[in-house]
Amino acid sequence: MAYVAVFLAIVVVVLSILYQCLQSRFNSNHSKDSGNVRTQGKPRTSAKIPGMEKRNQDKGNLEDIMDAGGFQKFIFKLHAEYGDIASFWYGKHYYVSLASPEAWKDHIKAFDKPDDLYEFSKPLIGAKNIQFANGEDAKRRRKLYDVSFQYEAVARYHKCYQEMADEVAEKISSLPAGEHIAVKECMSWFVSHAYRRVVFGDTFDDETKVVALHDHYVTTMDALNQKIGNPGLETDEKFDRALKVWHDLMRDIVQHRRDNPPLSYEDRNFLDILIDSCENEEQLLSEVLVYYSGGYHTTTFMLVWALYYLSQDMTLQDKVHEEVIEVLGKESNRDYWTYAKLGYGKRVLDESIRCSVLAPFTARINYDEDMEVLGYRIEKGAGVVHALGVVHMDENIWPEPERFDPDRFLPEQVAKRHTLAFSPFGFAGKRICPGYRLSYATSIVLLATLCERFKFSYVGSKNVRKKYGIVTLPSEEVWVTAEKREQ
Q1: Scanning 47, 155, 242, 463, which has the fewest C-beta atoms within 10 Å of its C-beta?
Q2: Domain containing residue 6
């Protein structure tokens, strides 16, 4: 019996040691897989978030932002130095920037947006729109407005943007052989016409008004882009004049719709919902302005960058062309659902968004409670930047990130990445860009229409750089030539 007792004691000791070893290894692997900064499996909530100290008591790190060349370049530099989670001061407000899908996952429930980071845009879009709404008010508005941008609504608009795409193609066809085409100008025309008709129901019989609407909007946006990293920058009289003209023209769009209401409930569009639901004229105009500017900028420059990249690689262009012929050539009645079958075309758009860093950042704030991210505590009231551009250029996620490769978005490649690795329209709090479906739908129609009929060759500057702002623009006009394809 004594031998049995000794044997059992030895077994117990061995099993205990084995259990401790396995437990230790599990904790180590779990910490590594989750990407969180952890000690013995417990969150380091007492650890200070790495980052920058205030350079100036009132301005915080605004001078550092200007020294870096703007807000987005500053964010790139911040994360290169401090890692996936880093802090800074935007004026007197403390911010934390997150630059990994794992960090974003920890912050995915945040809904509200900080006011001060977007303060620069108030002269352009007003302060009574959904951009500056939070809490239950913002949720109520999103539920009301989003109806106009669901799949069924976007599909209903297809005929309109197909007509606009055909008109662009006809304009290009009429040009002399070898004529240089200004891509930004071309895409701006398409998007401004398509969005006004689809979203606001306005057509503007006078083309001079269309040109004025576009030109004055671009003037004001160019000035405001400079204020992201320098909120104290003063605007000039040119800006004030352009802003007034643009606002007056947008008021004309609202009045036009009031004078020409839809004939049936099914014909109601987004502007009709705004007219019926906004509390006053100030809020109505402000909502019109924010949705127009958001939709115009994102879609226009998605298309500009797509043609910029494709025009430098005929092999990729041919793939788009061949897919259009194979998929759409069999369809006697092309509609939204047939264009949705263009998998390669969609991959081209996604890679254009990623490679251009089209959407550099978004931001959230939690007013009610602290949040834990990567094992660190972010106190309530702190602003949080979601550094979309940093993640979309992360070489650990996207090898050779500057190289344009639509096959990064093949299903088998997507399956290898974190589900949030590509989040150009935001992700947090179910508050992603409301018009992203419409943006994709209009873009794929124009891209397919142009690549079906033409071969494009890049003839612009070799020194086109990314100009960061609310969205990322080419630093100069993109120039191409078009050669008709054999039908």
Answers
A1: 463
A2: 2-34
